[in-house]
Amino acid sequence: MSREPLKMQDATLPEFSSQEQPQASPEFAIRGARLSDAAAIQSIIETYARQRLMLPRSLMQIYENVRDYWVALDDGKVVGVGALHCFWEDLVELRALAVAPAYKDLGLGREIVLRLIEEARAMGASKVFAFTYIPQFFSKFGFEQVPHHSLPLKVWKDCINCSYFNNCNEIAMIKRL
Ligand SMILES: CC(C)(COP(=O)(O)OP(=O)(O)OC[C@H]1O[C@@H](n2cnc3c(N)ncnc32)[C@H](O)[C@@H]1OP(=O)(O)O)[C@@H](O)C(=O)NCCC(=O)NCCS
Fold it and tell me: How far is the CA of 10 from the centre of ligand 1 (A)?
């Protein structure tokens, strides 16, 4: 597998196969998701949901929120995903972050996070938060751990409907922009 630095480019379409290996010199692009990306997005998330590393997303949830999602493409195939969900006038959540298994450790996760932070700033947010099992990853981008109860909008909107409510090991992290 290549460990060459990422080269970013403008984007076009997808069809994802988790079996495929990256090319020797991958060129990735990141763009806002399209409706036709939904199945590929779900496939990547499901890979990690089965390992309980992420919450699963139904296709309906993805279609309904497709404007939240960003995708990373390798030669037109969706190989990474991340989303920004708006909570309040100054607050957005970075969520649904995942890179297809064959594309991990190439710097793609970093590129998606940096792009989402840039987008959060562009839309006028002053705080971006994430709920995660990998705080070490998010701390690389300036996120700091906070108590769940410091994000009551998240708790009352999403957590109370989650099967892991009151039994949640996710760590809440926030970055001020
Ligand atoms: C987390 C994930 C998105 C990272 O993507 P990636 O492309 O593999 O990561 P990158 O290559 O961009 O790594 C960037 C940095 O983060 C570090 N990193 C990568 N995965 C990490 C992890 N699981 N825990 C801690 N640090 C991690 C890398 O070592 C690298 O560090 P460096 O800058 O000091 O060299 C990817 O591993 C993934 O999809 N994981 C499964 C799903 C998941 O857990 N999503 C997070 C939900 S909140």
Answer: 23
The larger pLDDT score, comparing residue 156 to residue 76, is at: 76
pLDDT reported for residue 18: 43
Pocket of ligand 1 (CB under 6 A): 48, 53-54, 97-99, 104-110, 130, 132, 134, 136-137, 140
Q: Residue 62 Cα, ligand 1 centroid: separation in angstroms?
A: 22
Answer whether residue 15 shows pLDDT above 50.
no
Q: How far is the CA of 165 from the centre of ligand 1 (A)?
A: 25
Enumerate the domain spans of the chain. 28-176
Q: Is the pLDDT of residue 1 over 60?
A: no
Query: What is the structure's pLDDT at 96?
Result: 97
Q: Which fold has domain 28-176?
A: Aminopeptidase (3.40.630)
Overall average pLDDT of the 166-172 stretch: 87
Could you please report the per-residue DSSP string of 114-166?
HHHHHHHHHTT-SEEEEEES-HHHHHTTT-EEE-GGG-HHHHHHTGGGSTTTT
Q: Under a CB-based contact definition with an 8 Å cutoff, are residues 155 and 87 in contact? A: no
